[in-house]
């Protein structure tokens, strides 16, 4: 038995033997299948890339049928239980867990790059009071590239590392600036003697305290949330990061594109969409009626379903547990009852069972964010902070992959054939 695929073209009667490697054939191997010398060759057609691997990767493994997620081989459950976010960041970027000495250097570097140029503060001030914070984040990340023109040299490993550190360090600062602006509050500068998550909480919540001390449970909760959101292989935003980065533009511009992809309600915007949905349902007693609307396809059950998972999203399990810990501090979010009832009924109903629709990462995270008093339109920003490291790891892997080139899909042209221009007066 050989690892090949024999294809017979019934248009010509010719057979071709295509190698199979790692469970895939190469789309370029289809090109030799032609009906004549002039024929361009066979293409594969895959709208929304439902069955196309766009790269080889060694970063994140998902088994969607079994509900397994691993970063560089380590189960997400173990990382969420034991590791810090910056440790996971190094794991994703470098492939291995850091030694204590390596970790100390990395934490120090990230901590020393948390400040942003004062002009970025002015940029933020230019937004309206009700500007969407995700749009503010996207714009300000893109603007960062103007401060680091050397970042355009993406072939220089040392320069790449500088930008990676800067982006991981500055994203929480930009996010917090956006939050404080929309709340009409003065910005809080980073505090370098706090942890990554502790500093973020300080930049968000600090008022007049001289010595702000983040609540340790909320601080840990954020580290866990950032870990859970850190990477998820070739999703819409990671693909945007790779695709835009493949033009060899600087990483700030690529990351702004990735964040824009994340913003949509079918991706990272789903955590906010879940809250809007729970508000619309309003009460546990309205859950069955809402689910009837979902089955009639008049509604979509936000926070449910996933392109890859056909099982419970392992991140959702951890977040559900975490929610109970956070509610001990913040008080229970009254919408939890509605969410749990939605989950209970949905997991029993044929519509959801047949389609293997389960809660995903966004189903419970919004309840935690709301209990912490974050406005709903800020939730995708919180997702983006955690995901930044994943985008950067995917970007660098793409750049170092000799097989990669500028991303440029093919199309099947079905439009008009050649025709002559008709002057305006004759139309
Ligand atoms: N509610 C109701 N029906 C659904 C849902 C849902 N949330 N998700 C999928 N379906 C149905 C869909 O209508 C289709 O039914 P049918 O076979 O009768 O046409 C079937 O399930 C297959 O769905 P699909 O749209 O082909 O699946 P997909 O892999 O293209 O979509 C998804 C994945 C995440 C876009 C989709 O499940 C969805 O819209 N979910 C709600 C939004 C959401 O929670 N997104 C967050 C995803 S996880 C985190 C992240 O990526 O940011």
Topology readout:
Elements: E1 4-9, E2 14-19, E3 60-63, E4 68-71, E5 74-75, H1 76-82, H2 85-94, H3 100-111, H4 118-125, H5 133-147, H6 157-183, H7 196-205, H8 216-229, H9 236-245, H10 251-263, H11 270-281, H12 287-295, H13 314-330, H14 335-346, H15 350-354, H16 362-371, H17 379-400
Helix pairs in contact: 1-8, 2-17, 3-6, 4-6, 5-6, 5-10, 6-7, 6-17, 7-8, 8-13, 8-17, 9-10, 9-17, 10-17, 11-16, 13-16
Secondary structure class reads: mainly alpha
Q: What's the name of the CATH homologous superfamily of the largest domain?
A: Citrate Synthase, domain 1
User: What is the average of the pLDDT values?
Assistant: 96
Q: If classified by CATH, what would the architecture of the largest domain be?
A: Orthogonal Bundle
SSE arrangement, N to C: EEEEEHHHHHHHHHHHHHHHHH
Form type: globular
- Estimate percent helicity: 40-55%
Oligomer type? single chain
CA distance, first residue to last residue: 64 Å
Number of domains: 2
In total, how many beta strands?
5
What is the CA-atom radius of gyration, in angstroms?
Answer: 24 Å
Bound molecules: carboxymethyl coenzyme *A
Can you count the helices? 17
Task: Throw out a few tags for this protein.
mainly alpha; two-stranded antiparallel sheet; binds carboxymethyl coenzyme *A; 3-stranded antiparallel β-sheet; Citrate Synthase, domain 1; 2 domains; 5 strands; Cytochrome p450-Terp, domain 2
């Amino acid at each position: 038995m050989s690892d090949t695929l024999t294809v017979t073209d019934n248009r010509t009667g010719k057979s071709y033997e295509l190698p199979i490697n790692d469970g895939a054939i190469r789309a370029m191997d289809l090109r030799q299948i032609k009906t004549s010398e002039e024929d361009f060759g066979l293409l594969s057609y895959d709208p929304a890339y439902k069955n196309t691997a766009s790269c080889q990767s060694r970063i994140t493994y998902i088994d969607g049928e079994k509900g397994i997620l691993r970063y560089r081989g380590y189960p997400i459950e173990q990382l969420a239980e034991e590791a810090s976010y910056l440790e996971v960041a190094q794991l994703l970027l470098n492939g291995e867990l850091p030694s204590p000495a390596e970790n100390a250097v990395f934490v120090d570097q990230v901590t020393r790059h948390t400040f942003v140029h004062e002009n970025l503060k002015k940029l933020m001030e230019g937004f309206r009071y009700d500007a969407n914070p995700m749009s503010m984040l996207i714009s300000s990340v893109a603007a960062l590239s103007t401060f680091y023109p050397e970042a355009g040299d993406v072939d220089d490993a040392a320069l790449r590392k500088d930008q990676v550190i800067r982006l991981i360090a500055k994203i929480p600062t930009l996010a917090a600036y956006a939050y404080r602006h929309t709340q009409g509050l003065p910005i809080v500068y980073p505090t370098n003697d706090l942890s990554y998550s502790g500093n973020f909480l300080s930049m968000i919540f600090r008022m007049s305290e001289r010595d702000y001390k983040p609540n340790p449970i909320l601080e840990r909760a954020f580290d866990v949330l950032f870990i859970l959101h850190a990477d998820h292989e070739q999703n819409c935003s990671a693909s945007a990061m790779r695709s835009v980065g493949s033009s060899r533009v600087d990483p700030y511009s690529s990351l702004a594109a990735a964040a824009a992809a994340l913003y949509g309600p079918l991706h990272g915007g789903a955590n906010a969409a879940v809250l809007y949905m729970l508000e619309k349902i309003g009460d546990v007693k309205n859950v069955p009626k809402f689910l009837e609307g979902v089955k009639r396809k008049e509604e979509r059950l936000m926070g449910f379903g996933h392109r890859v998972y056909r099982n419970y999203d392992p991140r959702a399990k951890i977040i559900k547990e975490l929610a109970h810990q956070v509610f001990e501090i913040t008080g229970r979010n009254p919408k939890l009852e509605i969410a749990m009832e939605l989950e209970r009924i949905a997991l029993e109903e044929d519509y959801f069972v047949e389609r293997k629709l389960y809660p995903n990462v966004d189903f419970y995270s919004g309840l935690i964010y709301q209990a912490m008093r974050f406005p709903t339109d800020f939730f995708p920003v919180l997702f983006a902070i955690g995901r930044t490291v994943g985008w950067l790891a995917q970007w660098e892997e793409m750049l170092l992959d000799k097989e990669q080139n500028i991303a440029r899909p093919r199309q099947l042209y079905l439009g008009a054939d050649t025709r002559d221009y008709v002057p305006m007066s004759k139309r």
